Amino acid sequence: MKDRIIALLKQDLVDRINKLHLIASQTQSDAANPELIQKSKYETQGIETGYLAEGHAKRLMELSSDLQRFHVFENKVSNKDDLILVGSLVGLKGDAGMEYYFISPVAALGSIEVDGRKIKVISESSPMGRELVGLSINDSVEIEILDRSESFIVREIH
After folding, report:
1. Hey, which residues does 153 pair with through a beta bridge?
2. Domain shared by 67 and 7, yes or no
3. Could you give phi then psi for residue 123, rounded to 5 degrees?
4. What is the CATH number of the domain that holds 139?
5. What are phi and psi of 51, to 5 degrees?
6. Residue partners of 108: CB distance under 8 A and separation at least 6
7. Calpha distance 82→65 (Å, rounded)
8. Where are the alpha helices (DSSP H) in the chain?
9. pLDDT tens readout for residues 8-41
10. Rg of the chain, C-alpha, whole Å
11. d(CA 132, CA 128)
């Protein structure tokens, strides 16, 4: 199941990079359009488009870096099931029942469904990720979620 999760997350990153690349290319082209040259102090569309192009380029670099980190991570995924690490699929028992989390090496990507199971993807650097990494089966943890404290017991590690 972890292989499918990793494949889905990688594909999501690739799709976001491709989509943003198209948007960034168009914005860059728009920013270079001579018709947007500022003719008065009130005509700022060219400047604003330039800022937007710069923001898109920065985000594209961040996503590309995330994909690179994901490739490095993918080659180092541990199959140890006794300790929560980056790349672990974790089953936590809480007030709402069993919930499943995948500890990602990159920014959180929301949730995905694999084999009919909802998996929440969290980054290792998120507050929850930091609390979970290093725990073992039957360890309990209390995590602040949306200004309230929630208790979990680690029931599964894959």
Report:
1. 93, 140
2. yes
3. -85, 160
4. 3.10.50
5. -60, -40
6. 121, 122, 123, 126
7. 30
8. 2-31, 45-74, 127-132
9. 888 888 998 999 888 888 777 766 667 766 666 6
10. 21
11. 6
- Which of 74, 97, 127 terminates a domain? The answer is 74
- Three-state DSSP at 19 gives helix
Predicted confidence at residue 33, as pLDDT, reads 66
Same domain, 70 and 13: yes
Number of Cα atoms under 13 Å in the Cβ half of residue 48 = 6
pTM assigned to the model? 0.76
Write down the H helix ranges in 75-126: none
In this structure, are 135 and 99 located in the same domain? yes
Taking the C-alpha atoms of residue 58 and residue 51, their distance in angstroms, rounded to an integer, is: 11
- pLDDT of residue 59 exceeding 90, the answer is no
Calpha distance 112→85 (Å, rounded): 19
CB contact at 8 A, 105 and 124: yes
Q: Which residues pair with 157 in a beta bridge?
A: 90
> What sign for the dihedral angle of Cα 114, 118, 124, 126?
positive
C-alpha–C-alpha distance, residues 80 and 138, integer Å: 16
The domain that holds 20 is classified in CATH as: 1.10.287
137: closest CA among 158, 117, 151, 122? 158
